[in-house]
Specification:
The chain is an alpha/beta fold. It is built from 11 helices and 10 strands. The strands form 2 sheets. Strands 3-4-5-6-7-8-9-10 form an 8-stranded parallel beta sheet. Strands 1-2 form a two-stranded antiparallel sheet. Strand 4, helix 2 and strand 5 form a beta-alpha-beta unit. Helix 1 packs parallel to helix 10, helix 2 crosses helix 4 and helix 8 crosses helix 9. The protein binds adenosine-2'-5'-diphosphate. Adenosine-2'-5'-diphosphate binds next to helix 10.
């Protein structure tokens, strides 16, 4: 598994299992266990997904040591607005059944994000969070945070897939040594990115599926990718992307699919 080194000094596996909308209980627990069994060592959840307890259970039942797994969760908007970052963080730890997380993110750039960031900096300095970062931050949010931050975010987790590659934010962050994590990398649940004939055409050349082509594109553009699936065969397939390399021409062809169309909310209008 490729690792990316972050500004905290820690390394993050370049592919992680996403569990947004994966149902609490058996569905999440199985997805986590299948992923760890397949060789994933990186799980990405959030308090608002409502499945932290099942993520923790899956990790325990996998038999894999806690310190071998890179675990991310996120501080929800209501807790940012209510300035209860430290309490919410403890609640997440309890639900996950662990005493630290590898990465803790501000989920969206809502009011009071700078104060919440200061709380995350404190928790990081106390050793309870190995690395801190943000999610869904636009360039202007990062510029605003920069005015008061003591520690720069190590990552920015954003929507990015072939129909919305979000490259401007990616280029800005990578130039500042802020690593990028892509959410909905396959175009999201119910999306139609994977049906694009261009991805099938490219995949056929390498004997790979459209999903594998997209994940490989993310690996080659140097970002962290968080595909989600509740099916064991797809979870296995999505990690099987290290035995081929897309040509420069194919990488460019995938960039050309961009339509600047989000599948998720616009971070400049976070009224949730
Ligand atoms: P499913 O859980 O039914 O497998 P993402 O949010 O990561 O962009 O993923 C979007 C959807 O793509 C997921 O809901 C998932 O549905 C589906 N998916 C994940 N991996 C694959 C794959 N290898 N082939 C086809 N569909 C996939």
């Amino acid at each position: 598994m490729n690792l990316i080194r972050m500004n905290s000094g820690a390394s993050i596996p370049q592919i992680g299992l996403g569990v947004f909308q994966t149902k609490d209980g058996e569905e999440t627990c199985n997805a986590v266990k299948w992923a760890l069994e397949a060789g994933y060592r990186h799980i990405d959840t959030a308090m608002i997904y409502g499945n932290e307890a099942s993520v923790g259970k899956g990790m325990k039942e996998s038999g894999i040591a806690r310190e071998e797994i890179f675990l991310t969760t996120k501080l929800w908007n209501a807790d940012i607005r209510a300035q209860r970052a430290k309490e919410a963080f403890e609640e997440s730890l309890k639900a996950l059944g662990t005493d630290y997380v590898d990465l803790y993110l501000l989920h969206w750039p809502v009011d009071h994000f700078a104060e919440a960031w200061a709380a995350l900096e404190d928790l990081h300095m106390e050793g309870k969070i190995k690395t801190i970062g943000v999610s869904n931050f636009q360039i202007h949010h990062l510029e605003e945070l920069e005015k008061t931050q003591r520690i720069a975010p190590a990552v920015n987790q954003i929507e990015s897939h072939p129909y919305f590659n979000n490259q401007e934010v990616i280029d800005y962050c990578l130039a500042k040594n802020i690593q990028i994590e892509a959410w909905s990398p396959l175009g999201g649940t119910g999306g139609n990115v994977l049906q694009d004939p261009e991805l099938a055409r490219i995949g056929a050349k390498y004997g790979k599926s459209p999903a594998q082509v997209v994940i490989r594109w993310d690996i080659q553009r140097g970002i962290i990718v968080l595909p989600k699936s509740t099916h064991q065969n797809r979870i296995i397939q999505n990690l099987d992307v290290f035995d081929f390399e897309l040509s420069d021409e194919d990488v460019r062809a995938i960039y050309d699919l961009n339509r600047n169309r989000r599948v998720g909310p616009d971070p400049d209008h976070c009224d949730f």
